Amino acid sequence: MIRDAHEANATVKPADFELARLRAAVPEYFDKNGDFRLDRLQEALSSADVSMTREGYELKFLGKSYAKYLTSTRTETVMVPDLEHNAEAANAESENLYIVGDNLDALKHLLGSYAGQVKCIYIDPPYNTGSDGFVYVDDFGFTAKDLVEKVGLDEDEAERVMALQGKSSHSAWLTFMYPRLELAKELLADDGVIFISIDDNEQANLRALCDEVFGEQNFQAMISVVSNPGGRDYKQVAVQHEYVLMYGVTDSVLVREIAKEASFPFHDGIGGYELRELRNRNPKFHRGNRPNLYFPFYADPDSITPEGYVSVSLTRTSTHHVEIYPRNSEGRDSCWRWGTEKVAANLVDSNPIDSQVVARQKRDGGWNVYEKNRRSTTKVKSVWADTGMRTEDGTRQVRSLFGGTYFDHPKPLALVERCLEVGTADDSIVLDFFSGSATTADAVMRLNAKDGGSRRFILVQIPDQLSSGGVAYGAGYRSIDEIGRDRIIKAGSAIRSESGADIDYGFRHFRLEEPSERTLDQLQSFDPNEDGVMFAGDFVSKFASNGTPGEQVALSTWLVQDGFGLAAEVNGVELDEYTLSVCGDSGYVVEPGLDSEDVMALVAKLEAGELDLKRLVVFGYSVPFSVMHELKQNLTSLRSGQTVSVIERY
Fold first, then answer.
1. Is 82 a domain residue?
2. Whole-model pTM over 0.90
3. What domain range includes position 316?
């Protein structure tokens, strides 16, 4: 775990991250020793008649090599779950995540489970205005001489890189942003998109940086957002706008259209519309878990209009007698998108022309129920001057939830909602790793409530301390993340009250923590080859934090590392006297106590087919050398023929 990361970081080079990306993309151009075969690539390009050029330009800044080095290192933090919060009814089954800690570490953790899965990223990073509080913070942990050796700088440049600490120069800002964007790119799906808010102070540098990280060909737009219609004094010009920079990661990027006023196939006394099926087409929702959305409509087949649809009612009558239940294409019970109250409010069962809910018969004789959808779409424009996009709108929205001004310049909901409308599908993962006042979580919940989606959010926020003289501090908040988490709770309550939507209003809470120097020293001095050499007490407990047992810390850290995410279900399997933690095809030995009898019990369960594992992950500090030897010997020679790999972690 930590020792493994520490030892790996001792030999990291700045190019390691990019080389790993190349190995994954084009493994055929690496030899068995892991060395890149440039000659083989050049030969392939020549035979394909691909022209190569040495012309072009490159973004250079003080700290770039060091930024690449930071990208390549592993995180030496652990993931601490908030067990009390996560056990609450609203959060226990939530797939939303809130992580408190440095976003550079958080992104590295998330790569283990969410690489290539995030559909939309929205971030509002520091603008580096000189008054927004941004300074580059890095304890480095080594000397300029170390930088020369690790990063390949000369002594003068190494000294200047270390001098970036506490600075707010363009180079400091780029050094800060570069590794975070490189890691964010790996999290995005092939059709994913990233939106970055910025102003004139760094927009040119950000554009050049994103061209390098995401590729010039993946630039989508530089959107102007009219955030201050009255204009903000800036030199000789009153500036009315900020920017949202938009990039994809491949040519598969999917940018959705937004609603527009347009021509519709049908018209009634209200205006144009199109028919949208009222059945919820999301397979996650059905009669079993949404019984309140499973009920019959009754159609009047004789009330047919020229457009081919008929009136419906929630009550069976002599005229409305054709029963319609929500069923999917396989004939299984599904559910509606609306409940009976919303249906009743949109229903005129005596007149299909005036009613907003109607039915139409299918070719096979069955029936579908539809809403009259009056929305259509258009490509999103590059200037966003809509009502609700102003900075003061964001301030007002936060004030309405908290009853006070607890946050400076929060992003308005309309801005983030527009990004989500453009950049997400109904079930997308949305990431914000500069989450601040948690506008992104609020926007995700509101959009889900509006369209019945099941989008999930992952928010990351460093626990910046609040000024003791501020309004928020006086209200009991001590750090920005506390405001963000409370905003999610308050916004969820407001959305539920306004809409009644049955969506995920909860979130699971985790903190990133770094072991103490003393713990690190003990990690390094432990010798797994000496049987019986253990620290006083068990080593797992040294990772315990604020009521969270060390076992839960290790499990959370490993589950996200191993691809199971932070919302995975872990089950306990009884061996002899030891309880093995199991998730999917992986078993985890974290706590001390595993002995020879437990190993034999594990082997018996595997050979009897009672347990199906592909790997067993073992916290090396908790298992004596002799027992570790038994595990490896027995799990590689099972009579069933299956092989369970034993992975030691330290």
1. yes
2. no
3. 260-376
